[in-house]
Amino acid sequence: LKRAVAAVNALKRQPDFIMFTGDLTHGSPDDKVRRQRMTEFKGIVAGLKVKDVRFIPGENDAGLDNGETYRAMFGASNYSFDHIGVHFVALDNVSDPNGFIGENQLEWLHADLARHDKAQPIVVFAHRPLFDLYPAWDWATNDGAKAIDILTPYENVTVFYGHIHQEHHQMAGKIAHHAAESLMYPFPLAGSQPKRLPVPWDAAHPFKGLGFVSIQTEG
Hints:
By secondary structure, the chain is an alpha/beta fold. It has 6 helices and 8 strands, in the order αβαβααββαβαβββ. It is globular and about 50 Å long.
């Protein structure tokens, strides 16, 4: 994470904002340890030069206490905002340990989008995929289809999600879903092995499967 922060700060043109799509920390059943890890994470990302840094929780951050510690440390776990003509929506599909968005949040999503024209560009952030990528590995949202139904009337929708620790692209009707590699614990392709276990670390290729690239230049 520290290397990633340094890489972002080295960019000649800083992004308008950065969104972390969850699993900010590795989960712990100990509330004190979980809070310590979140505090350490906040301290590291505070070094980002980007003015607007936003977050949503992953199951490691929120699934053990229904998001209580996460919200105390980072604020609301679902929200929306507008930027340069795009409406952004952050969903929480992890505070429920069973992987539900929940009826209250779905009603909020419907009401939030109802204020916008059907041609409005919309970007959604969620930790779990909203579609059934591979439910046997918990790569799904149990009521994600309801969220997709709410989003479907809108003509320009893109969903970015985390959770699977690898690059993946899929269309659900007109809605494009994209995931990127994680900064740690790369996972194998869905169903390629019996259990969902991280790809073993290879000292000869330390960044293999990770969302980090090292570039060397001459001169």
